[in-house]
Amino acid sequence: MSDGTAATRRRLLLAVGAAPLALAATAAAAPRSDLDILEGLLALEHRLDSAYDAALRRGALEERLALALRDQEREHLRGIELAMTARGRRPPPAPDPDSGLARSLRSAGAFRRYALGLEGRAVRSYVDALASLRDTRLLQPLGAIMASEAQHRVALRMSLGDPLLGV
Amino acid sequence: MAGSLTRRGALGTAAVVVASCGSSDPPPSTGARPGSGAGLLNSILALEHAAVAAYGAGARLLRGQALRYAREIEEQEREHVRRLEELITGLDGTTARPRSADEYARSFPLLGNGDDALRFARDLEQRLVRAYLQALPKLPEAELRRAAAEIGADEASHLAVINVLRGVPAAPQAFVTGTL
Prior knowledge:
The complex is a heterodimer of chains A (167) and B (180). With 167 residues, chain A is mainly α. Chain A is 77% helix and 0% strand. Chain A starts with a helix and ends in a 7-residue tail after the last helix. The N terminus of chain A is likely disordered. In chain B, 67% of the residues lie in helices and 0% in strands. Chains A and B meet through helix 3, helix 5 and helix 6 of A and helix 4, helix 6 and helix 7 of B.
């Protein structure tokens, strides 16, 4: 194989490899639509709902707390589904539970740490959403859910015996 | 009993008092562009100043765990003050200054014991949560909304801690609006 042929092949491979990268970069740079943001939040709420529901069945969290948190996540779910439906998108079904949940259910402590991490991720996701959403009518209701998730973290830290403010 | 009723009466007006010690203050004249969010952030800053003063006043009535958390929350409120001041200055605004300790003392409800102090703290945190959430649709820049959301989440956590110290569930509602 001549040097010229090898160089041409490298350029071709680079070009082929670069095309999806360029597309991915464009997608990453493009702002997400409000509906896509809502869909992301809905998936997180489903994960939280699944987690507390599993904790209830497996006794991984005090029953009263697990029930309260699960029911509150379900209210968040309903609120986001309504917001999506009102904007013309059918809410997707719940995603499969992630493998981290099954692992966490091996002990009560592990589950509480898992749930605390998930709630932290939820708070950060809501903060990102509140900075990005275009429809200002969504901001206060989603802010009220973010505030609820922040309070869930305090409830879980209390259950773990951790400092309540996490510092 | 009469004393208790008097105290309840005083605390019953706490929300009104809180309303008069912070965010209803007229925003100071600033060099910021109208609609920049500086005036709104200044109103919240006035409320944060009041919160710092309130935790300072309540600390003398609290002991043990409640005192430790009150001091921790007070320090976080001071951080919020600093962050708001940076945001307002970045918008070419002039930051609201805190009132004097005497002025705050006159505007706060009569606090006779630790329960009174925690109830007043709850009222303040409710008002702070509400102020940040209500600010969200009015702030024009994404990064201002991000800051308001982050601090609002902190205030919701403070409210949860105060709930725990008062013997009620940390997270009693699915939608925390800050409405008393």
